[in-house]
Amino acid sequence: MSVQPIITILEKLEKMHKSLLEHAYRKTELVKNNDMDELDQMLKIEQSHVAAIEQLEAQRQQNVMEYFQEKGIEMSSVPTIAELLEAVEDEEERQKLADVRNRLLKLVENLKIQNDLNQQLIFNSLQLVNITLNMLRPQPEEINYSEKTVRGGNAPRHSLFDSQA
């Protein structure tokens, strides 16, 4: 069995992650411009991308397991691409597999960085909204008793320290 079907799936995963990264960049601009309607549409598109990525990942895992079974290699759990690289005998296939793996890893790292930035922008926006709302809301009166209510109005204050002595 060749690893070409696995490489093809990884290339599809790469395309999906590139698309997600482009959407993440676009989402940053939408958050900056406060375009909530477009942001809502973007989130729906991202959800469909994530579902497609999950399906491709399941196919990749299945193909890698089949490859190992055909080669008679025992596996402890779901094998990784790194383990597959060690098992591939054809140098050209190994190089193609390593290249697509490295590109995919770089994309995933960039996507993580961009999503962290977007999350921070959204968090800052929410903080700004909360600060604005707190400024607009009337502040509740103090529930604790003040000195005037305890002493009954304008009663003279008696100090424990006699300043005339």
Automatic annotation (TrEMBL):
Q: What is this protein called?
A: Flagellar protein FlgN
Q: Which InterPro entries match?
A: FlgN-like (IPR007809), FlgN-like_sf (IPR036679)
The keyword Protein transport belongs to this UniProt entry's keyword annotation = no
Residue ranges, annotated region (Disordered):
144-165
Recorded source organism is Ureibacillus suwonensis
Q: Does the keyword Ribonucleoprotein apply?
A: no
**In which domain of life is the source organism classified?**
Bacteria
Q: Which UniProt keywords apply?
A: Bacterial flagellum biogenesis, Cell projection, Cilium, Flagellum
